[in-house]
C-alpha cells in the first residue's frame, strides 16, 4: 500500500505527521485484503485477520 497527502493526524500510516507529497510505501506485516480511509484515520485488514488502524484516535 502507498499513501501520500495531508497527514496532520498520522492517517497515512507512516509513523509521523508530516505532509507527504509523493507516494510512500506503508510497511505492514502481510498482504492487505481490505482498506478503509476516512478524513482523519485509515485502517487495513490483513489476510491473517490482523487489523491495523492509525490516525486521529479520537474514538
From TrEMBL:
Segments crossing the lipid bilayer: none
InterPro entries referenced in this protein's UniProt entry, alphabetically: Ran_GTPase-activating (IPR051553), RCC1/BLIP-II (IPR009091), Reg_chr_condens (IPR000408)
Any single Pfam family the record assigns to this protein: RCC1
RCC repeats: 1-48
PROSITE patterns the UniProt entry points to: RCC1_3 (PS50012)
Entry-linked SUPFAM superfamilies: RCC1/BLIP-II
Name this protein carries in UniProt: Uncharacterized protein
Record organism: Arcella intermedia
Amino acid at each position: 500500500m502507498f499513501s501520500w497527502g495531508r497527514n496532520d493526524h498520522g492517517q497515512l500510516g507512516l509513523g509521523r505527521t508530516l505532509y507527504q507529497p509523493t507516494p510512500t510505501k506503508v510497511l505492514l506485516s502481510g498482504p492487505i485484503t481490505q482498506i478503509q480511509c476516512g478524513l482523519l484515520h485509515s485502517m487495513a485488514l490483513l489476510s491473517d485477520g490482523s487489523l491495523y488502524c492509525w490516525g486521529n484516535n479520537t474514538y
